[in-house]
Design brief:
alpha/beta, Rossmann fold, two-stranded antiparallel sheet, about 10% strand
Length: about 260
C-alpha cells in the first residue's frame, strides 16, 4: 500500500501510479455551524477521517492517490446565516469534470468521500453519470454513515462538536444557546419513517443547529473519529478488492495469495 498526494507528484509519477491506484477525493463545504463551530467544519472533519483511514490501511492493501479536498458544496439552506455555496447542478458538473480529468490522467478507479449532508444527492448522481460516461469503477461514501447507513449525525450538535473537539479544539467556541431546538427540526424528525420532509425557514428557526452540543467531549470525538476512520478504511479496502481485477491490477495481497497457492 502506498498513499501519494496528488499535489506532490510530477506528471510522469502521476501517470505511472494511476493505472493501479484509486483516486480519492474528499468533498466538504463552507457553511454556518451554529455559533460555536467554524464554517469549514465539514471539510476539516472529512480531512481528519480520511487521513486517519489512510493510516489504517493494510500495508499490502490498495494504492491511493489522494486528491486535494474540494472545499465547497451545496449549502443554500445555510445562507440565512453564512455559506459559500454552489448550486446542486454546479456541484454535479464540478465533480463530473474532476472525474473526466482523473480518467484522462489514466485512473480507472475512484472514490469520493463526502463530508456534508447537503452534497449527498449531487455526489451520488455524479458517480452514476461518471460510470455511464467512462469505463471506470467509482464509489462514494459519506464519512459519517459508511458501514452504518442508518447513522444521522445532525448538524453542529453533539456529533460534529465532539469530533471538532478531537480534531481542532481551538476552533470550538462555547455553544451559544440555553436549550436544544424545540420542536426539533422537521427534516431531522420526519412524521413517518421513510418520509423526506422539509419546511420553509426551518434551518433559520432552529438557529442552524439540530441538537444539543453542550454534552460534547473530546473523548467522545476521539472514539467517533477512530470508528469512522476504521469503517472508511474497510470500505476502501473492500472497493479495492471488488474492482482490482476488472479496473486495476490486483492488489499486492491478492498477488501474494496467488503466489502462495502456486508454491512461489
Amino acid at each position: 500500500m502506498t498513499v501519494c498526494q496528488l499535489t506532490e507528484l510530477t506528471w510522469a509519477e502521476l501517470r505511472a501510479a494511476a493505472d493501479t491506484s484509486i483516486a480519492l477525493l474528499p468533498v466538504g463545504s463552507q457553511e454556518q455551524h451554529g455559533g460555536h463551530l467554524p464554517l469549514g467544519t465539514d471539510r476539516l472533519l472529512a480531512d481528519a477521517v480520511v487521513e486517519q483511514a489512510l493510516s489504517k490501511l493494510d500495508p499490502a492493501g490498495p494504492h491511493i492517490v489522494r486528491l486535494p479536498t474540494l472545499p465547497y458544496g451545496f449549502s443554500p439552506h445555510h445562507a440565512f446565516a453564512a455559506a459559500i455555496t454552489v448550486s446542486a447542478q454546479t456541484l454535479i458538473d464540478i465533480l463530473g469534470e474532476i472525474v473526466d480529468s482523473v480518467v484522462r490522467c489514466g485512473f480507472r478507479r475512484m472514490m469520493i468521500v463526502n463530508g456534508h449532508g447537503g452534497n449527498d444527492e449531487s455526489v451520488r448522481l455524479a458517480v452514476k453519470q461518471a460510470a455511464l460516461r467512462h469505463d471506470i469503477a467509482i464509489a462514494a461514501a459519506n464519512y459519517w454513515s459508511v458501514g452504518d447507513p442508518g447513522r444521522s449525525p445532525g448538524h453542529a450538535g453533539a456529533f460534529e462538536t465532539s469530533l471538532m473537539l478531537a480534531v481542532d479544539p481551538a476552533l470550538v467556541r462555547p455553544p451559544s444557546w440555553d436549550n436544544a431546538p424545540e420542536p426539533p427540526p422537521l427534516f431531522e424528525n420526519p412524521p413517518y419513517p421513510g418520509v423526506l420532509a422539509e419546511r420553509h425557514g426551518e434551518w433559520e428557526r432552529v438557529g442552524g443547529v439540530t441538537d444539543d452540543a453542550r454534552g460534547a467531549t473530546a473523548e467522545a470525538g476521539e472514539q467517533l473519529l477512530a470508528a469512522r476512520a476504521a469503517e472508511l478504511a474497510a470500505a476502501i479496502t473492500a472497493f479495492d478488492r471488488a474492482t482490482a481485477e476488472s479496473h486495476g491490477t490486483a492488489s499486492p495481497r491478492a498477488d501474494n495469495a496467488e503466489n502462495a497457492e502456486k508454491g512461489h
